[in-house]
Every structure is written in structure tokens, then in C-alpha cells.
Amino acid sequence: MTVTIDSDYIIGTLADLVRINSINPSLAADGVGEAEIGVYVADALHDLGLAVTTYEMEPGRVNVVGCLRGKGDGRTLLLNAHMDTVGVEGMTIDPFAAEIRDGRLYGRGSQDMKGSLAAMIGAVKALVDGGVELGGDLWITAVADEEYKSIGTADLVKHVQADAAIVTEPTDMTLCRAHRGYIWYEVETVGRAAHGSRYTEGIDANMRMGRFLCGLDKLEQALRQRPPHPLAGPPSLHAALLQGGTEISVYAAFSHLTLERRTIPGETEAQATAELQAIIDQLAAEDDTFRAAVQATFRREPFEIGADAAIVQALAPAMTARLGREPEHSGMTFWTDAAILADAGMETALLGPIGAGLHSAVEWVDVQSVLDLAEILADTAVIYCR
Question: How many domains does the chain have?
């Protein structure tokens, strides 16, 4: 069954969403959060006849959840998109103009991921306009904070449960079945403060951090030479933030490094931590003045789903019907909220529109791919929720 989407409505909704500033306040000092865009989404879903609930996790940080009730004799499906965006510093276009040129709509969040959110709303409108009664419930979830710590989806799974979920992160219209996770680490090397002239007394923590960084560089190169995950690629890491010392004529008593380790399905935090600890242990064995400690501070798990999963099997024919070809299966190097939904017991896959410029100076989304996504989501709901 193919429903009829309202192209003008979807494009208008996308433009409206891009014009609303929803910069994540955890990432930019001028970030306003999701309160305003949350009102817009809640009103749109309410106007379509959905039961709508807004959850506030922190002041100005909200999730909007709408439910299109089914007959109660089918499987339930959850569609997910985040409302927050990264900041606009350095952008070379008007981030909130939502200008359309050559089939592309430009602006911050256009692909990541307000195009997806507009498609989700448009998919529900198509079902409502067509008088389609699903067997199971269809949940539309617009969440906060995916760009930082995902407090939105972490809270969402406390309130909503479905048999399956589709996270509409931008996948360039490929059917994404895997992505990497990440772990944030803090590493500190300890020295001894002394006057810059007293080399017999001072121990330079910055120099010792340099030794650790040399070992870290070797580990990073080794990670990318390991057998990659067939969809998500190899593991990796990078040294993100570095700080040490107090003033120029004093030996640094400490040096502090924040690093990020990207993990692939099958890797564990214990394994990743052991690799970092091995560098420290080797350096301490070579020099008894070398002192360092490593601690994991935050993590998100990698994600993977099999090709035979029911939600994948429902998405595939809907994509084939709309795109005129069998879907390409893919994996993503970035992390998404799919891992949280899957961990909560929902079969989860990812599908999102074509575009470019995520987190960069010029961001755009291909308008036709947003319309394609809306129809695919609606048809998938019909197939899956029967």
C-alpha cells in the first residue's frame, strides 16, 4: 500500500523548523534549547489528531511525543528524530533562512535532522489524510540533546516502549544497520612543581604526557589497521583536549588530556581501557618517575541489527517501492540514539535523507529525499504495524 504525501506541507514544515533556533545550550553559550521548537512540533502533531505529551527533563530541554493509536492488534513502531542542533559559529550562510536553491534547502539542522523530523510529521499526515488505520500504535518522538549526551532519548525510553524503532538520522537514503559507539576518557600525568632552573627537583608532567601521546598515536594507528566492522568500519581514537602547567618558569605538576575512543560492535569498555592502561604501565616500567592515571567518564554503546530483523524487512520493500531499487545497507561512523532504543528492547534501524555539511559552514538537505523519506516511513508503518 502506498499513501499519498502532502509535499507542500512537508516542505513548509521543514522550512519552519529550520527557521527556529534550537541550538543545544550544552554546546554553545547562545544555545536556547528545544522549548520553542517543541511547541511547534507539539502543535503540529495535535493538529493531526495525535495524543501529544511534552516531557521536560531540564528547563528548556523537552521531548515531544505523539501517538497515532492503532486498533490494538498489530505491532507498535516508534519514529525518532532530535530537535537540537549544533552551533552556527563559522557558518557562511544564514543558518535560519531556510533558503531553497536547486532542490536543496539550506540552514543549520536542515539535514541533521529537521528534514527527518518534517518527514516524520508528513508521514503521519499522509496516514491521517488517507484514513489509514494501523493495527498497532505509531509513536512520533522528537527529542532533546542528541548532539551532546542524549538526555532526551535516555528519558524517552522511561515513558515509551514499542516493538521497533526507526531513527531518522541522515543516512543518505541508505538502510543503516550499524554504527560505532564512543567512550570519553580523562588521562592525567603527575609531575613535581619546581622553579624552572631546578632541574634536579622538578618533574615535568607535560613531558610525561608527551610520552603517553606517543604511545597513544601508535595505538590509534594500530586500531585503524584492525579488521573493520563490515558496516561501521574500524575503531579509532583522538586526543581532543590538552591542558597542563601553571606558568612559564615552573615545572608542570600536572598535565590533563581528554580523549575520545570510538568503538565498534563487539568491543567493550574494559578492553578499550586496558589498551590505554597498557601504555601507562609500559612507560612506568621504563621510568619510575612516570605517574599517570586513566578514567572513563562517559560512554555510549555501538549499535548493530541483523538484515533479517522484522523492521529491516519492513523498511526494505517500502524503500524499493519509492526509490525504484533495492536499498543499500550501510553503517555509520558516528553514534546515534539508535543504541539507546535498541538497548531498551526495540528492534531499531536507521534511515534518513540526503544532504551535506553536518556541523559545518554550509549545511543543506535534498528536498526530494525528505519527501521520499516521508512516504517510506508511512508505508513502513503500514507494513510493520499490521
Answer: 2
